[in-house]
Amino acid sequence: MCILCTPLSQDQVDAIWNVECEGCPNLTIIPDLPLLRHLRCAGCPNLTTIPVLPNLVMLCSDDCPLLTAIPESPRLETLFCRDCPLLVSIGGVPNLLRLDCSLCPLLTVIPDSPRLAMLAFDHCPLITALPLLSNLSDLSCDGCSALALLPPALSSLTRLHCRNCPLLAVLPVMPQLRFLDCSGCNLLVTVPELPVAAYLRCANCPLLASLPSFPVLVKLFCVECPALATIPECPKLESLICWRSPLLVTVPMFPLLTNLSCCESPCVRAIPDLPLLETLFVDGCPSLASLPTLPKLKRLVCDLGIDHPRNEHLPVAQLTAIILSRRRLKKLRWMRFKKFISTPQYSAYLNSPGHIGHRIETAQLRKMVSERT
Length: 373
Fold this sequence. Notes:
Layout: H1 10-15, E1 18-20, E2 38-40, E3 58-60, E4 69-70, E5 78-80, E6 89-90, E7 98-100, E8 118-120, E9 138-140, E10 159-161, E11 179-181, E12 199-201, E13 219-221, E14 239-241, E15 259-261, E16 279-281, E17 299-303, H2 316-324, E18 331-335, H3 337-340, H4 344-350, H5 358-372
């Protein structure tokens, strides 16, 4: 039994400043505690009421299924009230800095708190818009099916998660944004310029047709964006994942790229010289006619095209030469590799008179075959 479920003297009531009563099945009402600053009452299945606590600074009331309201709290700075299915309102919290009210399906309004820096309201289906929150630096609104607009200017925002927001068609100006995940936004056509963004994930965006240049972007994940025909200029890019891009024809030259995957992109015709590339996935690219030298390659996944008309595109001799020249190749997956090593092309290439040191390289190749197939 927690301290709030026992009789309290007036002296105790006036002295209590910190309470932890998480998971208490007997707690139904928080008593008036004028000096209380920190309250943790998460997982209390019968808690229905929290009174006005004028000195409260931190409140965690996650997973309280009967709680219907958070009262006015003039000094509150941190509020976690996740997974409260009956919560319908949050009172005035003018000094709030951090708020997470995710999984509150009846909540309709986010409080206007000008100091708010971190806000999460994932899977709140009745929230349609947000107040102006100029101080916000971290925002997460995944799975908000009615959210159609974000504030027009989020000048301090550095992280934005807005996955699976089907009505969100436009993103605001965010000059300080470094991380963006807007996957599953069905109406999104483009994203704004993000001069300091380092990570962008925009998978499953069927109308996304263009992306601006990203001067410092390091990772780009744009899987299943069928309207996207070009990859933008990204001089600092290190990882590019663009599976199932039916309109993509060329992969630009990214001098710092170490990881590239463009699987099941039927129109990709060539891979540029990428001097630092270590991982390459080109499985299911029937228009790909050749591969470059790729001196740093450590992992290769591709089709051989043996009895597979869709992938009869990469020359067998060239693929064999790639593995034989990769002393540092650690991971290899060639589709139907075991069948390939019994083909005439394989034997002819390894035993050709012009193939210098073919005996040593043949032994190395056969060892790799036995280890990796």
